[in-house]
From TrEMBL:
Presence of keyword Cytoplasm: no
Domain of life: Archaea
Protein name: MBL fold hydrolase
Signal peptide: none
Swiss-Prot/TrEMBL GO biological process terms: double-strand break repair via nonhomologous end joining; interstrand cross-link repair
InterPro entries membership: Metallo-B-lactamas (IPR001279), RibonucZ/Hydroxyglut_hydro (IPR036866)
GO terms of molecular function: 5'-3' DNA exonuclease activity; damaged DNA binding
Positions of the Metallo-beta-lactamase domain: 28-197
Keyword Hydrolase: yes
SUPFAM superfamilies: Metallo-hydrolase/oxidoreductase
Chain residue ranges for the region called Disordered: 446-497
Pfam families xrefs: Lactamase_B_2
Keywords: Hydrolase
Amino acid sequence: MHIQFQHANPHSGRESLILRFDGLLSDQTVCVLVDAGADVDTTTLLDEDAGEYLTAICLTHAHLDHYQSLGTNLGHGPPIYTGDGTARILEDVLETGREHHGFTQTEEVLNRLEPITSWTQIAPGLRVHPIPAGHTPGATGFLFEVTDDDVRRTILVTGDFTTRRAAGYPGFDLDLSVEVDTLVLTAATNDEFEPTLTDAIGTVLERARAGSTVLTTASGLTGVQTAYLLGHLTDRWDDPLPITLVGHAAKLYDRLEYTVPNVTTTPEFSSPTDVLTAGGVTIAGPEVPVGGSSKRLFESIRDDPGATLVQLTSGPSDPLSSATCTTHHFTLSNHPTTDTIDAVVDAFAPIQTIITHQQGSAATQYKDKYDSFVWATDDTDCYTLLDDAGWTPPPWVTDQTTRRVRATATTNGSVLTNGSTELEYSLPTTARCNDVDLAAEGLDLEQLRTQIPPRPGPRLSNGASETKADETSPMPAETSSESRSPKDTETTETQTVEQSLAAIEERLESIESAVTSRELTAQVVDAGDGTILLRLDDPSVDLEHGQELRVRLSSRNLNTDAATDQ
């Protein structure tokens, strides 16, 4: 048995690679492509004259950087294995890819699509099983098992992963009951995802609670995840909030058969007023509203001082900030923390570790970090992991490291009780969880409850307000009616009314200020000696010397690049 690997696009996303297995078929090398991102070309990576054929493609999830070249790598007729969640939405995802990214061969990809939920044989002696991966709704990793006579080898591919849930789909499990020989590790990290997610959800809720028309722009799957969190959170708080998914996000939500409280879907709409409402949240794509549904909706609220735009982007972008409405921007790149990366390697203690989705120093930092042979290469060379002599170390590894790793490795792999017997692992399901666990999704529920206190409930007979309890707001200690005097009750009522009136007055003042303010255009004049003047375009404006003005800087060069509604 010989096992090799090869990066399929090391100078692009570096999320795609080829696994090669020699010895399973007499006249052919079994080749499996994991993900098909930008610039993957198996016609140049594989040598048909040497018997190398693409036997299968395994797709981890439906993000563009992982499926972009699927349609151009079907020459050998491989099946495309993916998890059930990704398979459900792939038709809609590929249609968006065709419209906005020039994706080709959509029908052929769908014909070759094979959703898998359990062990599936790729070739004699090679089978694959999907593994929950978190990251995004429906995402999976893959566990490969290779058997030769009475020896078993395993390769675990994490794909883009997190240990957090993603809109109810389970996260990556560090307690898999399997020995991992080779770990293909996606090493993209984000230590700030959870506080950023909490801040974003809190901002959306806070603005909607204040009565603002809130437009949240996001990619399709991020939109689904955002609706899931908002819907279940407000339901738990007994705080009805109209949440409307439109366009591509609505289609994905429906395909995945979600039924989240407070959430409705409108795949197509005639007028923005059909889906926008004061005190509600509308979720649309693309991430930055310069095209698609989100552009149409943004144009209708752009000059509304009482409206809010919340942009949720997945990476570097140029969010819009020049508008009369309030604008916010949050980067939500759902990857694990650096500590989680270390925990994965420690949990599985692999002999071989291959770093993907990182380049340069971000990848090479892992080379000497673990008791494992760590491959952090940046080329399309084919590297041997296992041959007749055993596990092969990278060429740069010292003899000391080689001895240390081999001392902890199982020399003969996992021995089967019988060469024809398959020993089953207890592996987690990739199906969506039946329960709702918002903390497991990455939300800081205590912070959100502090930021957004409960709405005053209906009056009780004793004058107090009734509030629904949840896991973030423990019930207060009981106080008997006999221990409260009428004066105490009257004081409580008075304070509650005064607080409510004060909040209303503050909101009215904010609205009055936004509505009555004037917007002027001025040119910047450098008068020298560090003095900057503003020259008004309209000289008839009546301003007095010493008058204080509030200035908002804006750019006239808005980003007009095409974007996708996804």
